[in-house]
Amino acid sequence: GSMENTDVFLGLHDFLERMRKPSAGDFVKSIKSFIVSFSNNAPDPEKDCAMVQEFFSKMEAAFRAHPLWSGCSEEELDSAGDGLEKYVMTKLFTRVFASNTEEVIADEKLFQKMSLVQQFISPENLDIQPTFQNESSWLLAQKELQKINMYKAPRDKLVCILNCCKVINNLLLNASIASNENAPGANEFLPVLIYVTIKANPPQLHSNLLYIQRYRRESKLVGEAAYFFTNILSAESFISNIDAKSISLDEAEFEKNMESARARISG
Description:
single chain; mainly alpha; 11 helices; 70% helix
């Protein structure tokens, strides 16, 4: 199916409709008691994520075996899983998102770094060939990524990343066709994603990535989604470690750029 956010809404709607049926009583009880017992535990990312993932797979198996979904397609069952994820994670969001000091500090550091670097970095600094440079279309990819904080469900946040990556992918593909270059691969894709991410600089990017990694249903972080998600993790890691050498500037020039970027921000 399409990755639009509208079908997420339908997934949740359909899920809640089924949960209103008398025969869903046990499911409703299980979900409510899970949310209550979860919220009574002290935050611990490793434990929290294991608990949630285990609950998701247990519930998905229960849906599969229940008359409420008898005769349903795989797609409808999948949609129920997404509905469950969205319902549960929206309730648990404030408890698990950026829930420890470490993550809050990492968010702030990454945000500051991108705020500075975005003021002077050029596509050339990342070895993006002229053929593949397209600032106006990159804006579109940035806008997709910037929507990430509008949503609370892991799938919806992931969709923002996937939409951003697909915009970039299509651009690279079209550019390569237009100029008879070879089809672009990871070597062309990642630098553009890094550039777009720096320019977009969505707040709390680090926490968003951890949250998706921990709470997107495990069965769904596969294939294309996993490929693009791995790329944005690489982009984050590259950006966190940017120094003069990694963007082929000399040390003095890099420091000068960082200084004037700092002055501009505080000025």
